[in-house]
Amino acid sequence: MSAHSFSFYSADLMPSDPKVWITDDEHFHLSRVLRMGTGDTVRITNGLGLIVTAEIDNVGAKRTTARVSKVEANLPEPVPLVLALGMLPRTHMDGALTQCVEAGITGFIPVVAERCHAKRVTEGRDERWTRVAIAAMKQSGRGWLPHIEPAVDVKDLVARFASFATVVLADADASTGPDAIGTPVATLGIVGPEAGFTDFERLRIKDGGARAVRLSAQRLRAETAALALVSMLAVGRPAV
């Protein structure tokens, strides 16, 4: 066993549990892909802030049983940092979500905009995005699993602005960059699709109260812009 401890997700894990069960896809990855066994050490999170170290007792046919040896962290609920991203082709969307989960988002809202190549969410896509978010959470050692929201159009997105203390729109035509980081507040960051928002959509978003910021002097891909915006907004926030 190397010094690296692999991370796994168990939604039912509680702080007082002496044992934890790893099932379904997580069990398959542990037993068939990593071929871990009795005595190996793993990190496990419930996606709600709790991270424990555990030692595997038994790898069965359908589940793995592990004995909790230490509570590593029980992180408080983070201040919201939500990314709203225009729908991108599948691999680009998955990549953007992966990187932004690693960078610190607490929620993800797919946006169906006029210039999106993908105009609808296909069946099973929400479940796929949740799996992508779980994988990124484990990879980055996070304790909180970001919530994947249903897709919305721009009108419905603007209607949700009141839930946030600040709303920031990535806009290549903006004259200013992000403000200096202060005390973290509930924040919504918005990035358009590959071809950008239409002029009408941008106006609607700004009229709704979003502040437009320029991320770079260069032209950025949508997934690059998403990561750049989230990274800027995440500065100064505690680990999640």
What order do the helices and strands come in, and which of them pair?
Elements: E1 6-9, E2 19-23, H1 24-33, E3 41-45, E4 50-59, E5 63-74, E6 81-86, H2 90-103, E7 107-112, H3 125-140, E8 147-148, E9 152-153, H4 154-158, E10 166-170, E11 187-191, H5 199-207, E12 211-213, H6 222-234
Parallel strand pairs: 1-3, 6-7, 6-11, 7-8, 7-9, 10-11, 10-12
Antiparallel strand pairs: 2-5, 3-4, 4-5
Helix pairs in contact: 2-3, 2-6
What does this structure look like?
The protein has 240 residues and is of the alpha/beta class. It folds into 2 domains: 69 residues, Ribosomal Protein L25, Chain P, CATH 2.40.240.20; 154 residues, SPOUT methyltransferase, trefoil knot domain (Alpha/beta knot, 3-Layer(aba) Sandwich). It is 28% helix and 27% strand. The strands form 2 sheets. Strands 6, 7, 8, 9, 10, 11 and 12 form a 7-stranded parallel β-sheet that branches. It has a 5-stranded mixed β-sheet with strand order 1-3-4-5-2. The longest helix has 16 residues. The radius of gyration is 20 Å and the shape is elongated. 36% of the residues are buried.
Shape: elongated
Helix content: 25-40%
Number of strands: 12
**Rg of Cα set:** 20 Å
The CATH architecture assignment of the largest domain turns out to be 3-Layer(aba) Sandwich
**What is the CATH C-level name of the largest domain?**
Alpha Beta
Structural class: alpha/beta
Beginning-to-end CA distance, first to last residue: 27 Å
Number of discrete helical segments: 6
The major beta sheet can be summarized as: 7 strands, parallel
| Total domain count | 2
Features:
240 residues, 5-stranded mixed sheet, elongated, alpha/beta, Ribosomal Protein L25, Chain P, 12 strands, Alpha/beta knot, 7-stranded parallel sheet
